[in-house]
Design brief:
Layout lengths: L4 E2 L3 E2 L2 H9 L4 E2 L9 E11 L2 E11 L11 E4 L10 H12 L4 H7 L6 H13 L1 H9 L14 H12 L4 H8 L7
Parallel strand pairs: 1-3, 2-6
Antiparallel strand pairs: 4-5, 5-6
The structure holds zinc ion (ZN).
Length: about 180
C-alpha cells in the first residue's frame, strides 16, 4: 500500500532528515498539499558558533509534476533561523538574563565569540518575540497552574524553563514545530 508522509519543519538528527529525504516523493508538500511532486534540492550551509554546518535541507515542489514551485526545507531543532549561534548559546544567554545579569554580562556568560552588538540585537529580538513565545507555551501548558504574574520578560522565561525542564530551545522547536520567536 502507498502512503504519504507529512513533512515536519524540525527534526532531532541528521539521520532522521536523511531518512525522510530518501522518501521525498511520498512527502506531502506543506504549501500546496500535493504528493509525488517534491524532489531533493540540495542544502544550505552557514556558520553556527563559528563552525560551518548545514543549516537546512531543501526540497523543490517541481512544477513539471504539477507542483507549486516552492522550496520547503527541513531543519535540525538545534539551529535558529537566521542566527549565527546555536540554541545552546541562546539558552545560556537567557539563563544569564533571568539570573539578573546585564545584557553585556549575559553575552559574556554565553561565551559566544560574536560582538556585543549581536548581544543587544538578540536581546531586542527576544523582547519583540515575547508574545509569540508566550502563545506557543500556552498551547501545551495548563494555564491554571501558572501564576498570574507572567506578563514580564523574566516570568515568561521562568515559565519556559518549567515547561521544558531547562532553557531547551531545541525541545521547544521540536514540540511546537515553530521557529523559536517565529515567524
Ligand atoms: Zn507544493
Amino acid at each position: 500500500m502507498w502512503y504519504y508522509i507529512e513533512m515536519k519543519k524540525f527534526y532531532k538528527s541528521t539521520e532522521q532528515i536523511e531518512n525522510v529525504l530518501l522518501r521525498c516523493r511520498s512527502i506531502r508538500c506543506p504549501i500546496c498539499g500535493k504528493v509525488n511532486v517534491l524532489r531533493r534540492h540540495g542544502c544550505r550551509t552557514g556558520y553556527i558558533d563559528g563552525k560551518l554546518v548545514t543549516r537546512c535541507w531543501r526540497l523543490y515542489c517541481d512544477k513539471r509534476y504539477g507542483g507549486c514551485g516552492h522550496t520547503p526545507s527541513l531543519r535540525l531543532s538545534g539551529t535558529l533561523k537566521g542566527k549565527s549561534f546555536s540554541v545552546k548559546v541562546l539558552g545560556l544567554f537567557i539563563e544569564a538574563l533571568v539570573m539578573g545579569y546585564s545584557i553585556k554580562s549575559a553575552w559574556v556568560y554565553c561565551k559566544y565569540a560574536g560582538c556585543l552588538r549581536t548581544g543587544y540585537r538578540t536581546y531586542h529580538w527576544l523582547r519583540n518575540s515575547q508574545t509569540n513565545i508566550r502563545n506557543a507555551l500556552y498551547e501545551f501548558i495548563d494555564v491554571r497552574e501558572m501564576n498570574t504574574n507572567t506578563s514580564s520578560f523574566i516570568a515568561l522565561f521562568e515559565l519556559f524553563k518549567k515547561a521544558f525542564k531547562d532553557y531547551n530551545i531545541s525541545a521547544f522547536q521540536l514540540q511546537t514545530q515553530k521557529n523559536f520567536g517565529f515567524p
